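Researcher: Can you fold this with flavin mononucleotide in place?
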Amino acid sequence: MKSSKPDLRTRLGPLELKNPVMTASGTFGYGMEYEPLVDLNLLGAIIVKGLSLKPRGGNPPPRIVETSCGMLNAIGLANIGVEAFIKEKLPWLKKFDTEIIVNIYGESIDEYGELANRLKKLDGVSAIEVNISCPNVESGGMAFGTDPYVSAQVTERVLKNTDKPVIVKLSPNVTDIRLVAKEVERAGADALSLINTLTGMAINIERRRPVLANISGGLSGPAIKPIALHMIYQVVKTVEIPVIGVGGIMNSRDALEFLIAGATAIQVGTANFINPRATMDVIEGIRRYCIEKDITEIGELIGSLEIN
Ligand SMILES: Cc1cc2nc3c(=O)[nH]c(=O)nc-3n(C[C@H](O)[C@H](O)[C@H](O)COP(=O)(O)O)c2cc1C
């Protein structure tokens, strides 16, 4: 007999999620804007916009442009800063029956440590997601995440400053993402998430100028899904810790591909801008698929890819 209520619970190390569907950082604000449209209680987790120690205005406009099957953004990590988040957003977010994961980024290894320390004792913060795709100001602006050893150093520093589960979010702008994944695992991360955006640009041919004021931006959306999926496939074979899939997931079919490839959970990003209820549709679609295929626990699906 087919189970009408598949068990969608999944684990990211010490953290249990009621289902594998989360919001990708930077595409869901701090949840407030979506609350009239989405039942936040149904989400596996909300990952909030990346927070820095001090508030940041971000880059000058234009900072978003639509491209074929995707978008480029150069928001420049605009955010309200960790203190305002703790005071103004966290008390509201805590009311919901979901996990709150705080995405952080620093301009130096010290800043990552300070941020983790600030969030350490806070009730309502379930885990920290560390964005290492941002420029390392101390060493000339190259992203932390492009160097496996610096990525490991950031991970170690965050772990030293918190008891909360630590997810490290990897950059795809590297030659072999497995090298970074391996070092970050060795440093002690509880889970990995991948991928962040791929660097790209667009040019206005009338003005013969870059469309984005920042010249380049991060590419996201359906255009990057095959790349993200392949990286997940590679990384799950390389590390033992859970891997979270993100990149171009627009619907439940996309999400299922990532789960079958071995992702323990997934994040919905750019899709939220097109369909604010995308996360709800993805959860429902996964549930329906499980019922149809007689899957009683999501674990039966995760990593079930067959080759040959
Ligand atoms: C407008 C925008 C803002 C983003 N801000 C962040 C951020 O603050 N921190 C972070 O780790 N990732 C950030 N991301 C990356 C997304 O979380 C995600 O990794 C990426 O967009 C790929 O997923 P998608 O194709 O489903 O959007 C941002 C993406 C977009 C489009």
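Model: Folded with flavin mononucleotide in place. The radius of gyration is 18 Å.
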